[in-house]
Design goal:
The protein has 718 residues and is an alpha/beta fold. 48% of the residues lie in helices and 20% in strands. The strands form six sheets. It has a five-stranded parallel β-sheet with strand order 2-1-3-4-5, sandwiched between helices. It has a five-stranded antiparallel β-sheet with strand order 9-8-12-11-10, sandwiched between helices. The longest helix has 70 residues, at 159-228.
Length: 718
Amino acid sequence: MEADEGVPVRILIVEDDQTQRLKLTVILENQGYDVAVAVDGEDGLAKARSLKPDLVVSDIVMPGMDGYALCHAIRDDLSLRHTKVILLTAQGEMHDVIKGMEARADNYITKPYDTRRLLETVETVLADHQLDEEIGCPCKAYPPLTVEEGTGTTIRSSRKQILNFFISMYRDAFSRHGELQTAHQKLRYYSEHLTQLVEERTNEAVEAHLRQRRAEDESQARASLLDKAHDAIMVTDYDGHIKYWNKGAERLYGWNATDVQGKPIGSMLHDMRRPASTDALRSVVEWGKWEGELTQVTKDGEERVVQSSWTLLTDDQDKTEGILTINVDITERKTLEAKFLRTQRLESIGMLAGGIAHDLNNLVGPILMGAELLKRKIQDEDIRKTLTLIESGARRAVDVVQQVLTFARGTTGERVRLQTKHLLKEMQQIIRGSFPPSISLTLDYPRDLPLVLGDTTQVHQVLMNLCVNARDAMPQGGMLTLSARQITIDEAYVTMDPNARPGDYVEIVVKDTGIGMPPHVKERIFEPFFTTKESGKGTGLGLPTVMSIVRSHNGFMHVESELGRGTEFHIYLPVAPRGGEDVMHDDTKTVPAGNGELVLFVDDEQILREVVGTTLQRSGYRVVTASDGIEALARFAERSKEISVTVIDLLMPNLDGPITIRAMRKLNPDARVVAISGHEEAMRQAGNTITPAVPFLGKPFTSDELLVKIHEQIHREQ
């Protein structure tokens, strides 16, 4: 609808009910009107003064400023003297009509209204507006008209406004009169023929009664079936008020049907931070249905994700009766999907880390062995400290990748009997050599500490991670305490900690006097990828890896922390059964040297071949090298009786390690071999394919570790 010169007619709708606003907007926009909306009287007055609409359609009953007050304010504003006003009333009684005329409204519409009556009234009022503009005589005030003495009710409306009101009253009265007259005529007709129709209608009435009973029974049966449905099924009227609420809805949302009957569904289920999309309601109004996902809130404030289906309900005359809503709770499915995606991500990380670990181990190995060679050759203490730092940095690079591998693939490794106090002593040396001097260290453990069964590297990784975290928590310095003791866990303790099991344990405590953690951080520290460190300074995998390792050792742990008062990590590892050999860590033992034996070293990394060759020669061995399996077989065929031991990489181009080892044993069944690899999966697979088994040495390795393995193979019994 356009005014003069092609300018669309602007209508402002003032309605506090969202459904009514949307209904009016759809009807008027479909007629070509330029529609704006306001949610209450104050909002409507502000937008009327700003937009200068041609027509304001306002509900009467609204919070704050009602429709009458809004109309008074518009009439008192000279800038809005050309704006017409239509009031929406639910009663249409004389009192409401008089109050509307008193407010100088142009017309009113009685709810509920149909589209035709609404559009006719709007067009009539707008036609009056256009006529006023054309003849130049807009509505003007008239002397007050007293409606009833003593009431203070006066009318200042124009004659046209009063006439429009009376015409609308006449239409309403005529409509009601017509309905009453029709009903009266029908009543008289049935009354005149009642006597003669009683007998013939009796049977029909009985049959109708029986059909009604059957229909009621069927309706109750359907309602019973709907109550048995697991899905939440609801029916609302056109304004969104709940008419039906099945047992599935009670189970999902927590409200009984009696609690929600007649209440607006939006205010009960929709989180105010995430209001229901008006697009969904618009789709139902225009197309009759809508489907999608919604986040809703239960009676207890719990958020649930539902797959929602909305269907418009109509009667036989295609008149809208309400909206049927069926909601399926998919919260758990969404959670499982998130976990599945996270698992896939971890698998991808594991595969990527495995390849990185292989390449990194090949690169770091020469660095470690080269640093060891230089430390033995150089006597300058400052340079030796620098070389120690290089070694520490190289090992740290390997540890970072190993953390990812350990977390993504789980913990594996050989379980041996460990004395934890030896590991604490090793940590003491590392801390004193690499931690700031502002951090003091205290060790506390008894002399008779029992052994635990575990993987040395993994337990060492646990201690290293916790100590590094403690260091980072004390940027200004502080006290770091490492302690261990034997403790017996009984049933009473298990009731307080569900992760614990009864038995004897070695308790290891890593305690710092750092900044501590607030409760909300403490609750999340074992979540993968959660970190409080700055970007680039933490992976979020350290503590999850610690937890994974401790659990794989049949142990458990707990944390005590308070903001500003430090943190304590308590680790519980089961005491090892009696018997077996204690794995000692004696750093003073002498590394065995060679006596001119010939060693074949096979690896595709040239720099590693050169560094290992130099190391073995300095340790009393003769060395011959090969870059792949084919070259290794040629060297071995030439000097098989002379070669004392072959050190061979498992992953090489052309011919890999396992195939090369089997070919060597065909040439010499007594061939002695040490397998090396920087890829854990390759080592596991090779262990199942090489018979008899060969000892493995993981990359990167130190020169001492390599020399020990070679010495063991040369001097082992046949």
